[in-house]
Every structure is written in structure tokens, then in C-alpha cells.
Design brief:
This protein has ten helices and nine strands. The protein is an alpha+beta fold and about 350 residues long. Strands 1-2-3-5-4 form a five-stranded antiparallel β-sheet, with helices on both faces. A two-stranded antiparallel ribbon has the order 6-9. The longest helix has 24 residues, at about 285-310.
Length: about 350
């Protein structure tokens, strides 16, 4: 535990909290929860309270993907919705305060299952209940009336899939280290296969077990869904497909560890999709397209992490193998887009 961290000015933070009527008791301390892969996340403590602060990476190349104000607003809107989220505390959009916008929410007690080792604490029955709960919470998120929650302007549902394909192609051009012809092939195939119609809901954009906090006493209960930086209004099936693609062992290269979500103890991508279809009542039409798009997205995210690592802009360890995951996800995307339609 330290008084100062890269991208964090505790003296400035205290002044901000005091100015916004948030009482502090004693010296502020901080510890890094995660850094470099996405937004920097710190646990902030004083003598009586605990908070979590998030801010963009110090050298990120894709600022729209690290918009802490957007994730704060969706979490604030989801208070009392039935979707478990942290209590919001304060948002600072003035970059002059600490070099970048930042958001503060209440610390949520519980456990985060990040690695395959963390899964050892769960019995097979607990794990099955946990997966059912994760799927149930995702279906609950997709059932929220975003207009009633004041999120009607949070995104543009119309044309969402077209924009997603263009967005990730554009991000690839910004972060690629090599020209991979297979990426171009996947992009062209995705453009041709975009479904003409889809549902529109709040989407999380990065949903898997380690982006939730489980109850400390019950693995079958989610205390909070976290990491909302990629959330928007769009097609709910993109969340479901991404959850399935995260089962690919190549995710270990992106996260720099044996990830919990790639463990063979967990259900397959098809099983997860089936559970979601039952929980939500949605049909999973055009499933090959959604799986291909999710693989494309993961390939670009891996390339982005690799780009920041090579630029010396990551904080922490475990980023040196991210680039190796890119061709794995691209190959899986091409395989998916050539597959038959999945009927669920």
C-alpha cells in the first residue's frame, strides 16, 4: 500500500472528495487492483471507508474504449434495477484535477474469480450455480428498460452491428504491428454477413466471470457487475457471443495468466449460449456472425494491449504475450463465419 501511484494523485483526490461533500477520515491510501489492460483501477482507503477509483490508461490509444464517465453513468442508472452494481460516489470529468477523468464508486465486498487457481475453491455444484447466476444476471441486464432508466441517449442502437464491424476494423489499423491478410478476410466476411435486424438493449461489452464480484459466502450470487467501460446500447447477442469466445484458451495470453473463464471445468460456449437462450427467451439467430464478430473484437483488443506494452504504457506484468493471441482469435473468427447457422 502506497501514497502515490502512476496516474493517481492522492492529494488532488482528497481535495476533490472534500469539495464534493464526501467525508474522509485520516490519510488516503491506495493499491492497484488492475492496470494496463484497460482502465487503471485502484482501491482507495482511509481510516473508515473504502472506494474504487477508475481512470484511463496513461498511454492508451483508444480513448473511446476507456471512457470512465460513460461507465459511471450506466452504473448510476442501474441503481435499483435488479442488476447488481456498486453504489456510485462521484465522477470527475475535469482532466486538470488528476491528468484524466476519473470515477469513484463504493467498494463491494466479495470475491473475484480471475484465475484457474481461484476456481479450486468452488465445488462443481457451486460452479454450476455460479454460471447459471452469471447468465441470469446478463439476461436481466438485457431486459432493463433503458429509456425508463434515462439511458435513451447512451448509444445508437440503429446500425449498431454495422458500426461495430467498422469500429474494430478502424481500431485494428491503429494498433496493428503486422499486416495480417486473414484480418482483412475476416473483416470482408463480417461486412457481408451483418444481420439486417436485431434487438436493442444495454450491452456490457466485456462480460465474463472476472468482471463480476461474487458474494463472499455464496458463489451462486453476484454482488456486483464491474468494468462497464465498453457498455452502450446495442445488440444483446454480442454480449453472449463474447462470453462464449472468452472460453478460448488464447484469452490466457491476453490476460497474462491461466484465466478462470478458459478453464475446462466451465461449460462450453454452446452450453453458455443455450443457458442464455433459456434464461432470456431469445433465439440465437445468425450465431456464426456473432461468434466471428466476437473473435474479431478479441483479436483487436489483444493487438491494442500489445501495442501499449511495446510503447511502455502498461502498468503491471503479464502483457508480453498478448500479440500471440491475435492470429488465434482471427483464425477462430474465420472458422466461425464459415460455419453453419446455429439453431437454439
Amino acid at each position: 500500500m502506497v501514497k502515490q501511484r502512476e496516474g493517481l494523485d492522492l492529494a488532488a483526490l482528497r481535495q476533490f472528495l472534500d469539495a464534493n461533500g464526501i467525508d474522509t477520515a485520516g490519510e488516503l491510501r491506495a493499491e492497484l487492483i488492475s492496470g494496463g489492460k484497460s482502465n487503471l483501477t485502484y482501491r482507495i482507503l482511509d481510516d473508515s471507508s473504502r472506494w474504487v477509483l477508475r481512470r484511463p490508461p496513461t498511454g492508451g490509444l483508444t480513448p473511446s474504449a476507456h471512457d470512465v464517465a460513460r461507465e459511471y453513468r450506466v452504473v448510476d442508472a442501474l441503481q435499483g434495477s435488479g442488476v447488481p452494481v456498486a453504489r456510485t460516489v462521484a465522477l470527475c470529468e475535469d482532466a486538470s484535477v488528476m491528468g484524466a477523468p476519473f470515477a469513484v464508486v463504493e467498494h463491494v465486498d466479495g470475491r473475484v474469480i480471475r484465475s484457474s487457481r481461484d476456481l479450486d475453491a468452488l465445488s462443481d455444484n457451486d460452479m454450476d450455480r455460479c454460471v447459471d447466476e452469471l447468465v441470469r444476471v446478463l439476461a436481466a441486464l438485457h431486459s432493463v428498460d433503458y429509456e425508463a432508466k434515462g439511458l435513451g441517449e447512451f448509444g445508437r442502437p440503429e446500425g449498431y452491428l454495422n458500426r461495430q464491424v467498422r469500429l474494430w476494423a478502424g481500431q485494428w489499423e491503429r494498433v496493428k504491428s503486422d499486416d495480417l491478410s486473414d484480418v482483412d478476410r475476416l473483416y470482408v466476411a463480417l461486412r457481408v454477413a451483418i444481420p439486417s435486424e436485431h434487438d436493442s438493449t444495454i450491452v456490457h461489452g466485456d462480460y465474463r466471470i472476472d468482471n463480476t464480484i461474487l458474494s463472499a459466502s455464496d458463489a451462486g450470487s453476484v454482488a456486483a457487475v464491474v468494468d462497464w467501460e465498453l457498455s452502450t446500447l446495442g445488440d444483446p447477442l454480442t454480449d453472449v457471443a463474447l462470453m462464449g469466445v472468452y472460453r478460448n484458451p488464447a484469452l490466457d495470453l491476453v490476460l497474462g495468466e491461466d484465466a478462470a473463464w478458459t478453464s475446462p471445468r466451465l461449460p462450453s460456449a454452446d452450453d453458455l449460449a443455450q443457458r442464455y437462450a433459456v434464461a432470456s427467451g431469445r433465439e440465437l439467430a445468425h450465431w456464426n456472425f456473432y461468434m466471428a464478430l466476437a473473435n474479431f473484437k478479441l483479436a483487436v483488443i489483444a493487438a491494442g494491449i500489445d501495442h501499449r506494452y511495446r510503447a511502455g504504457a502498461t502498468v503491471g506484468e503479464g502483457f508480453d504475450k498478448s500479440g500471440d493471441a491475435v492470429p488465434e482469435f482471427v483464425a477462430a473468427g474465420l472458422s466461425a463465419i464459415k460455419g453453419r447457422e446455429r439453431a437454439v
